[in-house]
């Protein structure tokens, strides 16, 4: 598990909760840096670059911090591109990897000067017809590797909507040739939560085979899938082993390719999952015939991963961390079934205690909503030991902001 200095203590989180109220997302800047440095260290012998997949967490301060430590940015919408530029990223350090967007959105990204990754034949052809080789592109391939902890987040399978199938290589080649497209990158992203290093290696071998069809390549982008531990004993992607094996394979291959090649990655979760803490308050303890429920002042409107992906988030009582452990089922206050965790051993919870969800940095706030007309939580960034408010809690005005009242 994490080093002590890597973790925000219970007492510290209680203070943050008292100062800024709950529910609140708390992010620890230095932990993001630690994770980035782990990646750099693992791939030190390869010409590797990392682009933070910002759909995991896009607060502008987090983006600015990530830019400040020298990491690039991976974006999936034109709005993420715009946020990245606003955060100060050089367009060259941004890669745009959308799927199922129209040509206009691709052109908008091109006009902003970022790296473009095209993920279907139709857009490839339209882009080629319009721009030919005047703007280099990357092509997202689907190598059909079944990987990922969950079917919903596994993107390499046959029925996946992502990427262009490697079986369509001939078709890609025809378009590239006839429109003179300049393909400088090949990309794959097989899905999230890959535990097995050899999956990456299989993918990369397929990518190597593809390179001979593309003479202008400058990089191969292997996307992400780096898994982090959500609880003690959870399997994690062995970054050092991955770094070593991949570096060997890549450097061996790169010798035979006629131009220098870079290895790109797009980690999201790996960089920001563990930096995040979601702090809530226990509203009620409700004992039924079979279960003791803790009802907290949040729900899947704020943290949907447990309900959407069956994800496990470790929950602790930070107000009573010496209390006797008891078995609780932690639920939200939404009028829908929203169970955060069944049968969890937690130090005795009293109404008013603060609970924390760990690993809440990635896909936490970012997937939140205003369901039940509840307000989105505040966000706090901890840097150099100080807590800074980086997003105010919603107010009722935010709920009404874009609504247009008509005469009735
Ligand atoms: C979501 C996504 C990632 C990041 O995935 P994580 O599991 O968060 O690391 C990387 N690349 C692309 C194209 C993505 O859509």
Automatic annotation (TrEMBL):
Pathway: Amino-acid biosynthesis; L-lysine biosynthesis via DAP pathway; L-lysine from DL-2,6-diaminopimelate: step 1/1. Pyridoxal 5'-phosphate binds at residues 225, 363. It is an enzyme of class 4 (lyase). Its cofactor is pyridoxal 5'-phosphate. It catalyses: meso-2,6-diaminopimelate + H(+) = L-lysine + CO2. The modification N6-(pyridoxal phosphate)lysine is found at residue 55. Residues 30-273 form the Orn/DAP/Arg decarboxylase 2 N-terminal domain. Its EC number is 4.1.1.20. Homodimer. Specifically catalyzes the decarboxylation of meso-diaminopimelate (meso-DAP) to L-lysine. This is Diaminopimelate decarboxylase. It comes from Chitinophaga niabensis. The gene is lysA.
């Amino acid at each position: 598990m994490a080093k002590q200095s890597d973790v925000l203590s219970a007492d510290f989180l209680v203070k943050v909760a008292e100062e800024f109220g709950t529910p609140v997302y708390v992010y620890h800047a230095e932990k993001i840096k630690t994770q980035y440095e782990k990646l750099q260290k693992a791939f030190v012998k390869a010409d590797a670059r990392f682009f933070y997949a910002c759909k995991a967490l896009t607060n502008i301060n987090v983006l600015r911090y990530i830019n400040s430590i020298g990491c690039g940015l991976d974006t999936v919408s034109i709005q993420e591109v715009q946020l990245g530029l606003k955060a100060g990223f050089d367009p060259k350090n941004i890669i745009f990897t959308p799927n199922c967007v129209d040509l206009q959105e691709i052109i908008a990204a091109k006009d902003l000067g970022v790296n473009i990754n095209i993920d279907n034949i139709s857009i490839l052809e339209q882009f080629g017809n319009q721009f030919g080789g005047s703007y280099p592109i990357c092509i997202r391939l689907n190598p059909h590797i079944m990987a990922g902890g969950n079917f919903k987040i596994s993107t390499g399978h046959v029925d996946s909507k992502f990427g262009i199938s490697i079986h369509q290589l001939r078709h890609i080649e025809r378009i590239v040739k006839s429109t003179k497209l300049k393909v400088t990158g090949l990309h794959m992203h097989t899905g999230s939560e890959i535990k097995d290093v050899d999956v990456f290696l299989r993918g990369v071998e397929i990518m190597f085979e593809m390179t001979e069809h593309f003479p202008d390549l400058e990089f191969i982008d292997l996307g992400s899938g780096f898994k982090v531990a959500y609880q003690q004993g959870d399997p994690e992607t062995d970054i050092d082993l991955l770094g070593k094996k991949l570096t060997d394979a890549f450097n061996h291959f790169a010798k035979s390719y006629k131009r220098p090649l870079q290895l790109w990655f797009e980690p999201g979760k790996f960089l920001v999952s563990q930096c995040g803490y979601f702090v809530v308050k226990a509203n009620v303890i409700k004992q039924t015939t079979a279960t003791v429920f803790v009802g907290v002042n949040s729900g899947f409107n704020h943290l949907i991963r447990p309900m959407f992906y069956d994800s496990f988030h470790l929950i602790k009582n930070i107000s009573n961390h010496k209390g006797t452990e008891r078995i609780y089922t932690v639920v939200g206050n939404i009028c829908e079934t929203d169970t955060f965790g069944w049968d969890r051993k937690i130090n005795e919870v009293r109404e008013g205690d603060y609970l924390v969800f760990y690993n809440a940095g990635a896909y936490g706030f970012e997937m939140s909503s205003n369901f039940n007309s509840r307000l989105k939580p505040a966000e706090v960034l901890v840097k150099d030991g100080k807590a800074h408010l980086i997003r105010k809690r919603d107010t009722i005005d935010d709920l009404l902001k874009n609504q247009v009242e008509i005469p009735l």
